[in-house]
Amino acid sequence: MTGTPTRVLVLNSGSSSVKYQLLDMADGSRLAVGLVERIGEETSRLVHTPLQGGGGVKRETAGPIADHEAALKAVAEELAADGLGLDSPELAAIGHRVVHGGLRFTAPTVVDDEVLAEIERLVPVAPLHNPANLTGLRTAMSLRPDLPQVAVFDTAFHTTMPESAARYAIDVATADEHRIRRYGFHGTSHAYVSRETAKLLGRTPEEVNVIVLHLGNGASASAVAGGRCVDTSMGLTPLEGLVMGTRSGDIDPAVTFHLKRVAGMSADEIDVLLNKKSGLVGLCGDNDMREIRRRVDEGDPAAALAFDIYIHRLKKYIGAYYAVLGRVDAVVFTAGVGENAAPVREAAIAGLEELGLAVDADLNAVRSDEARIISPDYARVAVAVVPTDEELEIARQSFALVQGSEEVNA
Fold first, then answer.
1. Which position among 67, 82, 87, 154 bears the catalytic label?
2. 390: annotated binding-site residue?
3. Of 8, 30, 302, 314, which sits most exposed with the smallest number of CB within 10 A?
4. For 93-117, what is the mean pLDDT?
5. According to the annotation, is 385 in a ligand binding site?
6. Is 297 an annotated catalytic residue?
7. Taking a C-beta distance cutoff of 8 angstroms, is the pair 82, 53 a contact?
8. Is 53 among the annotated ligand-binding positions?
9. What is the 3-state secondary structure (H, E, C) of 319-378?
């Protein structure tokens, strides 16, 4: 092989799963995608799809996959079967999604023992995510110790928030001792979508102010001024902010004290209630927006109320971030609900005409995988739909860092 290696393997290691994509940064194309799920169970399986040369035909391997090391070895075998193995000289780096980087990690970082130790120190503020991310990192490092392993942090994009937005109004010494502040999440998506929105408007990120609404089962909003995040809805954890599929979002903190004193619930029970049994599922028993809309259309009052509460919170954040930014060039919807649920977009913008916002019904009804504007020409502020691509963003950041490192070390 001649020339610079251009491929990046992106790994997203969850507690019982590994999602992966292999991309070629020469043109941004995907060479393979896959998922290992239910790791450690008898029903675990690997679903692998080669996209270049493989015709996009899925291959599924069933059977027990004991742990993340076995999972990554199985992924390596599937890639090798397509001539895309981890030993390929065309592989430039492995990029890892890491949920929490605290205040130290403000950019993608080549992982070494010191970085691993700091990610581990952050486990108390990300107990569900960082341990799985660490397992993926350590396993990949053992398989390819000579290859740059790059951590891309969900929190990094939000580290530009001013202290006035990031601080909670509690005792400073207590907050600092226990790292209590607003970190924000979904940062990789917010970074990608805000930049792609500027491109859609024909401008540079530095020229535009954007409100990004990342609406999936987890949901978050951000205010992005000139390419820098100045506020975001998630906080110390992903529980704060918008109404989500199973999370409550914003809630009076005293609710937790009330549940402990009056209902006799433990801290763990309250944690489960607010994170897994609240939001849309707590309000109406469903967290799938398609099913909720079907029920709304059939006249189901519980589904209608859940939808109205969801939209009310969404509007509050649009208005709040409009005030934070002062001038808004675009409000953009992304992620599963944001990209596909036209009724959500229509309802969230309805009544905001005085802010220069409007949705064109015909444009909003179009289903497309392309970034597009759905506001009428007369609207002062663009309303857009921009599909997110966190894997491409992780690959871009990882590749750019490795290229830069090679130039520095040359």
1. 154
2. yes
3. 302
4. 94
5. no
6. no
7. yes
8. no
9. HHHHHHHCCCCEEEEEHHHHHHCHHHHHHHHCCCHHHCCCCCHHHHHCCCCCCEECCCCC
**pLDDT tens string 166-209:** 999 999 999 999 999 999 999 999 999 999 999 999 999 999 99
Q: How many beta carbons lie within 10 A of that of residue 10, not counting itself? A: 25
Q: Measured between alpha carbons, how far is 75 from 185 in angstroms, rounded to an integer?
A: 27
Whether pLDDT at 211 is above 80: yes
| pTM assigned to the model | 0.92
Pairing of strands 330-334, 209-215: parallel
370 is in an annotated binding site: no
CA dihedral 9, 13, 16, 18 (to 10 degrees): -10
Token representation of residue 6: 């251009």
Coil vs helix vs strand at 261: helix
Checking DSSP bridges between strand 372-373 and strand 330-334, what pairing results, if any? unpaired
Q: Running DSSP on this structure, what letter comes out for residue 182?
A: -
Q: Is the pLDDT of residue 55 over 80?
A: no
Predicted local confidence at residue 1, as pLDDT: 43
- Is 38 annotated for ligand binding? no
Report whether 288 belongs to an annotated binding site.
yes
Secondary structure, 3-state, 122-171: CHHHCCCCHHHHHHHHHHHHHHCCCCCEEEEECCHHHHHCCHHHHCCCCC
Take residue 207 and report the two structure tokens written for it: 């020229």
Q: What is the pLDDT of residues 355-405, one digit of tens each?
A: 999 999 999 999 999 999 999 999 999 999 999 999 999 999 999 999 886
Q: Do residues 97 and 394 make contact, with C-beta atoms less than 8 angstroms apart?
A: yes
Cα 159 from Cα 178, distance rounded (Å): 18
Return all residues near 228 (Cβ < 8 A) that are at least 6 apart.
160
Dihedral angle of Cα 288, 388, 16, 158, to the nearest 10 degrees: -110
The contacts found for 290-296 with CB under 8 angstroms, 24 or more apart, are 290/341, 293/341, 293/343
Q: Rounded to an integer, what distance in angstroms lies between the CA atom of residue 79 and that of residue 163?
A: 45
